Structures are given as C-alpha cells and as structure tokens.
Amino acid sequence: MRAAAIFSDGSHGPQRAGLLCSALLALAAAGCPDPAVDAQIAALGPEAAGVAVGPLHRPNQPCVVCHQEAGNAAAFVFGGTVYFDATGSKAVGGVEVALLDAAGRVHRTVTNCAGNFFVRPGEWQPTFPVWATLVAGEHSIDMESPIYREGSCSNCHQTPAGPRSAGQVFLSDDPDMPVALPPSNCGARP
Amino acid sequence: MKLARLLLLLPALGCSGQAIDTRPEPRLLQAPPRDGFEPVADALQATCGTLDCHGQVGRNLRLYGSRGLRLDPKATSAEGTTTAAEYEATFWSVVGLEPEAVSTVVRERGEDPTRLSLIRKARGTDHHKGGTLMKSGDALDRCLTSWLAGTVKTEACDAISLAPRPMLPP
User: Fold this and answer.
1) Does A149 sit within 8 Å of B53, measured CB to CB?
2) Where are the beta strands (DSSP E) in A60-164?
3) What is the ipTM of this complex?
4) What is the pLDDT of residues A171-180, one digit of tens each?
5) Is B67 within 8 Å of A166 when comparing Cβ atoms?
6) Chain pair A-B, CB pairs under 8 angstroms
7) Which residues of B touch A131 (CB under 8 A)?
C-alpha cells in the first residue's frame, strides 16, 4: 500500500507498485547469497578438463559444500569418494556404502565409476551419529568412528592423512589380502 | 593539597627502596582433578571429539585424541594412541572453556553442573549444533559430572569409550 502511495501518479501508480512487490517477492524466494559458502565453493577451483558436471565429477572434494541448501547444487545428506587403498589414486566403483544410523536404520548405496557416492535427502534422513561400512563382495571395512554431523566425507578424510585428517576413504588396508574389485556399471546412476 | 598527598605517598615509595606492587592479589581458581582424567578424555573423544565436531582447531572447546585432532603435526587421525600431551591439552581446553564457572562448580563438589555450558550443551538444554549427546544420569553424564565432583566414575566413562561398534544387521 505504501509503495502505491510513493509511485502513485494516477493511472500508472498501482502498476508500478505491483511490479515492485513482485520483484521483492522474487528476490526473497531466490534467497540471499552466503559469502562464506560462496568462498568455499570458489576455493574448490574449476571442473577437471573433460569431466562434465555430474555424478562423476570432483572426486574427493567436499561434496556438501555445493550440495547443500546454501550451495549451488541439489542437496546431499552424504557424499564422498572411495579409493582402493589409503594412499593410492585408484578410485573404486561398485563398492557398497552401508550407513547405519542411531535409530538402527540402514541405507545402502554404491559408488560409481569415479568412486563417488551420494545420498539425497529424499532417499534418507538419518539420525546421527551414523556408522559407515564399505562392502565389496566378501570383504568389508568399517569406519572406526561415527559421523556426528558432517555430510562430506572428504572434510575429515583429506589426502594425505595428517593431524586433522584420517586420510582418504579406502577399501583395503591389507596389502597381503587383495580385494577383488567389484564389477562396476560405468555411466549408471548409483 | 596535592603536595600533601605526594608527601604521604613518598615514604611508601622511597623508604625501603622497593617499588610497591599494586597489582591485585591473583585469585586461585580450582580445577577438577587432573589425575584420572584420561577416561574422561576418552569418553569425550568418542562422543564429542571427532574430526567433524570438537576435533577441530576452530572450536572453543578443542578436544584431542588418536581418532580426532592430533597435537603433533607428524601424527595422523588414522593411527596411534592418544598421547600424554594430548590428554593434557584436552584437560586444559575443557577447564579453560569457562574457568571461573568450573572453579565454582569444583569448589562446591560438583553441585549444579548445569552452570557449565559443557554440561548444558551436551544435555541439549542450550542450543548445540551437535545436538543432545547425553541425558542427565546416563553414562556420559555420570562420567563428566563425577569428574567435576572430584572422583571420576571410570566405569561410566569406559562404557562410552569402550562401547562396541554397532554392527550392520545381516
């Protein structure tokens, strides 16, 4: 009403007020940018050459930085990348990621060709803490400590391991016990 | 008048040849026992000190441990055991969070530990991004409050840190 009074100049006043209100509503619906999140996204750098934006991109980057409500992509509850061992660069597709929450519910997903996996909010809403296990055939490996709130594996599992990192997520920690790599279905959505 | 005041002050300043220490007498704050803190630290590490929570340098309450934040830059969060220096650092981090309040609670033998944000946040009565981690009287609560009261209930602390990992259902 106040807008109508400011712009009121006869027949055009109410139309201008309507346009102003619509613009304000659109801005509100778009949400305000979060400069801290924007800075984190920018710090991740550009996409790798030859890799399209999608499930195969940005292995071992903190997925939820972008894939959150304040980010620039569809939200994830969890996202990460699985490698064959603790120090190598070979990511592994076809590995089952089993997540057990505090309510005893289990969600399972499978890594894709890039070793990536992700869980969407519509698929699962866990009660924290959450315990993670990787399964490949007869072989399985448990995460030693639970996840209390972080959705991006690589926020804690940075490469290399250090005083603030457990190192990359890996399937095999025993070089004398080779693990048969699971068949992967490259190109399929996990 | 100013000269009179100066004259009164002069003997105090000059007779003994020593400067007066006008700093207030430091108050001695009381801390919970350092002896026997290790089980408490282990329980805190398991429930609060993971890398995604208080195992981060950016937290006011910073907890160290073998599967979280390490003190030695050469250590990793993937191996080893919690060191004596890390137990020490965690102790002072917890005590230093609200030192006066901790001192009061310890002096009163653990009476009303909810005067500490450590307890209120873990119990969920204060807003806590990590949510509710304990309820009054459960194992973690007894572990922390017994430490504040002066005698650690080790079995309560061990029930947390030595709890078996939940297994995936078949």
Assistant:
1) yes
2) 78-81, 96-100, 106-110, 116-119, 131-136, 139-142
3) 0.81
4) 998 877 677 7
5) yes
6) 75
7) 165-166
